[in-house]
Fold this protein.
Amino acid sequence: MIIFLYGADSFRSKRMLGEMKKKFALDVDPNAQSISVLDGQSTNLKEINDKINTGSLFVKKRLIIIENIFKNKNTKLFSELSEYLKKFENSEEIVLIFWEEDLGKSDKSLKIDSKKLFAILNKQKFAQEFVPLTNNQLLSFIKKEAELYNKKIEISAGLELINLTNNDLWQITREMRKLSFHSDKEIISLKDVQEMVVGSYNEDIFALTDAISAKNKSLTIRLLEEQYSAGLTDEYLLTMLIRQFKILLQLREALDTKLAPGGLASKLKLHPYIIKKGLFQTKNFSSLTLKNYLNRLIHLDFLNKNGLADIKTELTVFISEL
């Protein structure tokens, strides 16, 4: 069996991936000895084949999760996989889940070999694209998140949360958890959101990326320490840094294609304030540099979510190598 989860809404696809992994462990392999997670950016056919053919002696079924395979720079792998995967399409014992973030059906970054693999994965019975939710869908999502904590939320509060987080489900879920434990009140009000939610336009993140763009290592490390001292988590810092570098890359590429600054807000669907701050920072970056930084941060996020690294140490190393 082959499952393909992808799309711009990486939060919901990641949540579904987690639910599938949990269900497999619950139904098939409580010790999770037959579950493997591979970093698709660096894997190869031999590693994938080895994981498929190894596992628990007591459990025949295998679950192999491959994340971000389309970010792999070995283009030969795509053609290899296109042939290799055919024998697992109807397999009952091997479950292959491909999870890909920031990839849509019309993604123009895919080359010939990767397009062929994408077409094969996307035709699978269990392929699903996760597109960003509309405002009404986001309100419904927020309502359900509140119910997880036995809470309700005012419509005005939900709309304000959407506005402050720029529709970011990763941040919305963190903020909903914080708001739910904020008080014993059953209903989360507009006032609660306004008082408790900082919002996406975090000046500290701008300051951090400012220091990174200036290659001021001592200042960057000091700002990072201040964020940790303020109680921010690895997950939050990585999410915000990844989001900011994605925005900077969008702005850099838009400028490189001669898009007029005045049209950036509507073209990229970003808040004018973010455009203004980001344009200043992009002057110190090339598109290639931004892509390298972004890929490295995404890889750190992968390591963090799988418990494979001390993120504070890794971020410090990242900064020291600027």
